[in-house]
Amino acid sequence: MKKSLMIGDILFYLALPYFIWKFGQAPLGSYYAMLLSTAPGLVYTVYRFFADKQFNVTGLFIMTSMSITTIVDLISQNAQRMQWNNVYLAFGFGLFWLMTMLIRKPFALYLMADIAALQGYEREKSREVYKSKKLLPLFYIVSFLFAARSLISGGLRAYLIQTFGISHYDKILFYMKIYGWGFSALMAVAFVYVGLKISEQMEKEQPKEKEELEGNESSSPV
Questions:
Q1: Distance from CA of residue 105 to its chain's centroid?
Q2: pLDDT at site 6
């Protein structure tokens, strides 16, 4: 399963966009070739969205961010503006993650609650456990990592645009995908670590729930 996902990521996020850009510039022009090169990744992301059943808060976030990105790409009018708009969008998403931390609602907590729901846990119960003193700081750290990923992505794209120019979009695409996969590996490690800590906390919560349940049953009239 992981191997097929890796092949899909390489094919739809790198190989097909590169092919479309490389052979679409002459007949379509730089802007439309660049715009069309985003289509495979968009379609693949939508497919993965429904295949993985990522709904609720996570699904709403994914679909909203995809919609905003697509709309901005469509109204950019030229390749240069499209790439710079993607820089501003990356900074915007980074600020969004930071804002959720400032209002004391780290968005990573809600994403993890959705993941727990897919595994059969009650979403509201998971959120209550996640807000404990031992777990809550972890979600601030993960949210900060998401913010850092977006902010660094925006800075890196700006640097690549100034270094290579739009005429070498294939190089920008390559380095951005490598960066994205590298940071995704870091995020995967963070999620695994947080998942282990959550499992430990859930194991501690279960005896308490059992004691409360037994106490309620013994106190109830026969």
A1: 17
A2: 64
